[in-house]
């Protein structure tokens, strides 16, 4: 038995991916905010500097006209003192400093600093060069031209905001900026954990089943989490356990029979064996029957007396390996299963042989013959149920996971593509929920608790709603959908939701198994005190031999055209149950390769 403490992988993977990409998103947001802040600060300081340059240039020109530049040094000193600029200077037409806030440089040549790069801001020209303490310094150069005087130029140096300064300013608000996203991420982790947790145990069990060899029967465990999906899964497991026959590690019936025959070969023990429904026979060392109860003749389909006959001859045709198993190794127990034909039916018998006296090959054998046909049918039904349920549960789960991971890992630019992915996830979740609902309904049907709530219903509106629900499906396959609703359908006492589901199921099956450009005809008329609903299609049809089985749970036709379509084998059994709960009936007429007609008769009262 698998350990229930095995780590659950699905929630951890989902939560880890969610945290990883959430943190990447927050980090990207922080980097983006930093660079945006840096750009805003540079633009803001540059704009302010240009505004100040315009004002000081105008003041210097006026001073030069009125006083010959006597107040230039004072004007530049006041400007630098305001903190906007590092230095200020006026350069004459020969490239020599006439005025400088650093008085030691007056009269020195105004050479370009090393590593300078030219730039233009409109009519303002300048140089950009690295500062002595890091960062960049902008030197703005504005001509000071006045009429009748030699051309001078104004030079102002202005530091650009350093990245570390920007980071320091952003750090003041980092706690507030990060707190909100982290709270949202935490809430997301909690919500996703709660959402995925009920599916994790199911996913683990499905993975384990998928890894089993084909000849091994799965033994799934129940899920302890809450939620509709977990409840549905647990009901599946309960159903499988009911289908699974009790398989003891060792069947001691034959050993007990051998002891009984050895202790008392006649009298009360013989009468007891005669009353058993299981065939019991006693053979000598050569294999000839010395005693056989009445059940042997019935199980081996013989009317003649069996005493004195070799039992293996009565059993019938055996393959060479099985005959060798039962004929050789006389001192050992042997068991074989073999199919036999009884009239038109085929059955499976379990034939077991045990030595009458352990270790003595000359003491004869006791044989038991058991009909295990129903057990084999139950095993086949269980395996088919497991395969169908595993596929129907795992496929939508895998699709949901794949599309969700794609949404998380890919950077989509097209919103419509994102919507398409979300719609696909929603469709797969709806498919999963519908399958779980069908399982719950089938389970309720088996225990007799599926009930209907009959209320007065407008039949015309009900039929129109059913037709509208499948119209998109019909249009997608270019099917000619012919709806013929009688004018006097009136009202009826129906369980609206269940009848609607039944009709939609029949129409959906017709669309699913009808080739493109085929025809589906939906008819509803009133016949005295009943409503007759008919769904006819020109689809693949159903083989006559399979028609009695289509209303059995989980039955799937062997026709490849039907097998290729996704289905669970639950829709038609549920539809017939709903019809019978309304005291009606659901019948089928079909011709292979031509189409099918499903007819429902529902009393209005």
Tell me what the structure shows.
Mean pLDDT is 76; it is low at 1-8 and 246-251. The chain is of the alpha+beta class and 605 residues long. It has a 6-stranded antiparallel β-sheet with strand order 2-1-6-5-4-3. α1 (10-67) runs antiparallel to α2 (72-81), α11 crosses α15 (571-581) and α12 runs parallel beside α13. Helices cover 48% and strands 21% of the residues. The relative contact order is 0.06. The chain is elongated, with a radius of gyration of 45 Å. It has 15 helices and 18 strands. A hairpin with a 7-residue loop joins β5 (136-144) and β6.
Structural key phrases:
single chain; 605 residues; alpha+beta; 6-stranded antiparallel β-sheet; 18 strands; 21% strand; disordered N terminus
């Amino acid at each position: 038995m698998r350990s229930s403490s095995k780590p659950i992988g699905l929630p951890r993977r989902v939560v880890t991916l969610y945290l990883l990409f959430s943190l990447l998103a927050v980090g990207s947001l922080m980097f983006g905010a930093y660079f945006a802040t840096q750009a805003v600060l540079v633009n803001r300081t540059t704009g302010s500097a240009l505004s100040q340059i315009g004002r000081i240039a105008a003041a210097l020109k006026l001073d030069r006209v009125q006083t010959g530049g006597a107040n230039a040094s004072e004007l530049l000193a006041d400007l630098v003192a305001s903190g906007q600029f590092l230095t200020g200077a006026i350069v004459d037409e020969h490239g020599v400093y006439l005025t400088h806030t650093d008085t030691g440089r007056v009269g020195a040549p105004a050479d370009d600093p090393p590593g300078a790069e030219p730039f233009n801001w409109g009519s303002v020209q300048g140089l950009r060069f690295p500062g002595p303490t890091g960062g960049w310094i902008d030197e703005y150069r504005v001509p000071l031209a006045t009429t009748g005087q030699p051309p001078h130029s104004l030079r102002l140096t202005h530091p650009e905001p350093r990245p570390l300064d920007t980071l320091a300013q952003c750090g003041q608000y980092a706690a507030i900026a990060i707190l909100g996203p982290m709270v949202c991420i935490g809430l997301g982790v909690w919500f996703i954990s709660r959402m995925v947790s009920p599916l994790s145990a199911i996913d683990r069990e499905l993975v384990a089943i998928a890894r089993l060899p084909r000849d091994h029967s799965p033994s799934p465990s129940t899920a302890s989490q809450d939620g509709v999906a977990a409840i549905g899964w647990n009901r599946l497991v309960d159903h499988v356990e009911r289908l699974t026959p009790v398989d003891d590690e060792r069947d001691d019936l034959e050993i007990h029979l051998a002891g009984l025959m050895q202790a008392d070969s006649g009298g009360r023990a013989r009468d007891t064996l005669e009353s058993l429904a299981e065939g019991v026979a006693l053979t000598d060392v050569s294999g000839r029957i010395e005693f056989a109860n009445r059940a042997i003749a019935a199980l081996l389909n013989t009317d003649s007396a069996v005493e004195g006959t070799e039992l293996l001859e009565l059993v019938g045709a055996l393959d060479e390996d099985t005959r060798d198993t039962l004929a050789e190794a006389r001192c050992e127990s042997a068991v074989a299963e073999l199919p036999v034909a009884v009239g038109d039916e085929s059955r499976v018998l379990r034939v077991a042989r045990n030595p009458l006296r352990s270790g003595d090959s000359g003491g004869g054998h006791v044989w038991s013959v058991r009909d295990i046909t129903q057990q084999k049918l139950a095993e086949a039904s269980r395996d088919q149920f497991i395969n169908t349920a595993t596929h129907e549960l795992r496929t939508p789960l895998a699709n949901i996971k794949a599309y969700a991971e794609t949404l998380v890992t890919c950077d989509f630019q097209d919103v419509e593509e994102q919507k398409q992915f979300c719609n696909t996830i929603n469709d797969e979740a709806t498919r999963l929920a519908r399958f779980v609902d069908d399982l719950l309904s089938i389970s309720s049907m088996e225990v007799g608790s599926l009930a209907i709530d009959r209320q007065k219903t407008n039949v015309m509106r009900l039929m129109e709603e059913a037709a509208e629900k499948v119209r998109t499906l019909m249009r997608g396959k270019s099917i000619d959908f012919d709806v013929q609703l009688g004018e006097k359908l009136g009202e009826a006492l129906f369980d609206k939701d269940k009848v609607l589901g039944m009709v939609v199921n029949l129409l959906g099956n017709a669309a699913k198994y009808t080739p493109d450009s085929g025809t589906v005809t939906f008819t509803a008329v009133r016949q005295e005190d009943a409503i007759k609903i008919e769904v006819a299609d020109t689809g693949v049809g159903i083989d006559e031999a399979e028609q009695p089985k289509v209303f059995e749970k989980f039955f799937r036709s062997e026709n490849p055209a039907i097998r290729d379509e996704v289905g669970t084998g639950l829709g038609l059994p549920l539809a017939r149950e709903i019809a019978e709960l309304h005291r009606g009936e659901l019948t089928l007429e079909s011709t292979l390769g031509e189409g099918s007609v499903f007819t429902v008769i529902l009393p209005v009262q």
